[in-house]
Amino acid sequence: MKFEDVINLKSNQITDPTYIKKCKETLERNGAIVIDNFITPQALEQIKLEGAAKKHLAFFTNQQHNIYISDADPSYPEDHIRNKRVISSKGCITDDQISAESVLRTLYDSDVFRSFLKVVLNEQALYSYDDECSSINLHYASEGQELGWHFDNSSFATTLMIQKPEAGGEFQYVRDVREADKGEMNFSDAERVLAGDITPNMLEIEPGALVLFRGRNAIHRVTPTIGDTTRMMVVLAYNNKPGVALSASARKTFYGK
């Protein structure tokens, strides 16, 4: 499939400066932007079919982690928010399992798409990961699987919703809980989020939507999937520096290889 047949260019004029400016302003204002019907129905169907055909290849994990996705800090008690454990469970197929002819690869490798992202995300350049696993990931969340509350280590995330579950699987977030670059962790508000004392925002994401999200200082989660329909979501991972690769131990942890 050609690039022109992947993105719904009539609705999403990603080379038009006015459209790009509007997207950038929305992301800067809200910390997130959901662009509905970003890919065409034909492209969405092809990705869904590839995802269904390759689900048996997915590496499934059920992990406990703290909200910072980091090692525990022994200077705090085990039940302190710095060390408190949450659960994430999902399946994933990796870049090396995405076919060379995949719609996802056409989109990910497109200079036009990458130029659009670069401006909206306010990045000087965007590069693929320098390993065989990380650039394109297709995630699966079956009944009961979820992503626990956490902060991202990267400054932005780029995702595509492919298939919604019957219920659950909601993307919830609370903005500006911490200021990571200044070392301001704001443990009290993070504790309140996990306790349910702060009502999170929710993104309404339909299949075919592109989502850009700044999760470094916004705590977020995906609630457990309900029903027999698997939630399928693609992560299109870029770096603002060349030559970045996950370590062998990280690849083993996240991808099982």
Automatic annotation (TrEMBL):
Ranges annotated as spanning the membrane: none
Pfam families: HalD
Gene Ontology MF term list: metal ion binding; oxidoreductase activity
Highest taxon, organism lineage: Bacteria
Domain Fe2OG dioxygenase: 115-242
InterPro entries the record matches: BesD/HalB-like, Oxoglu/Fe-dep_dioxygenase_dom
Name this protein carries in UniProt: ArpA protein
Naturally occurring in which organism (per UniProt): Cognaticolwellia beringensis
Entries under SUPFAM superfamilies matching the protein: Clavaminate synthase-like (SSF51197)
Keywords annotated in UniProt: Iron, Metal-binding, Oxidoreductase
Annotated family: Belongs to the iron/ascorbate-dependent oxidoreductase family.
